[in-house]
Amino acid sequence: xxxxxxxxxxxxxxxxxxxxxxxxxxxxxxxxxxxxxxxxxxxxxxxxxxxxxxxxxxxxxxxxxxxxxxxxxxxxxxxxxxxxxxxxxxxxxxxxxxxxxxxxxxxxxxxxxxxxxxxxxxxxxxxxxxxxxxxxxxxxxxxxxxxxxxxxxxxxxxxxxxxxxxxxxxxxxxxxxxxxxxxxxxxxxxxxxxxxx
Length: 197
Known about the structure:
This protein has three helices and eleven strands. By secondary structure, the protein is mainly beta. Strands 1, 2, 3, 6, 7, 9, 10 and 11 form an eight-stranded mixed beta sheet that branches.
């Protein structure tokens, strides 16, 4: 009897210790889409950055980015930037929430932290990193210069995933009194998840 219970516990333990590795495959190089079903003054990434000096291209299944992008969001350098990231799954004609979300209450102190996921994917590739290290998304006119940056990154999870997913990124600026600024940035990145192990 105890052997059977021990076997069941081992099976449960190993089923939760195994992870699956996935890579998102973007639909095309035009990766930033306006968020659907938003109310009020909610705008896409082109309200956060001037992207006229940037280049996005597909290289196989990867999206490669390079160029200069300048912050143009009408906020103040003293504003607190909150970042809300959600992953949604398309199922039976609707976008449904998943278990995966991140809420960063105060993004600016963490923007250049090399232990953060966004740093390894994107920020760490900035050519002028030392020049802009003290500038956050709340500093209009800051020019970020990026060399070739592969925006496609792998991630691990305990769940088996398949199908179409979207990453929704929402940025809200709050003034010193904690009142949100009227312009909110929201963008969606859509693609399939492909299991690689």
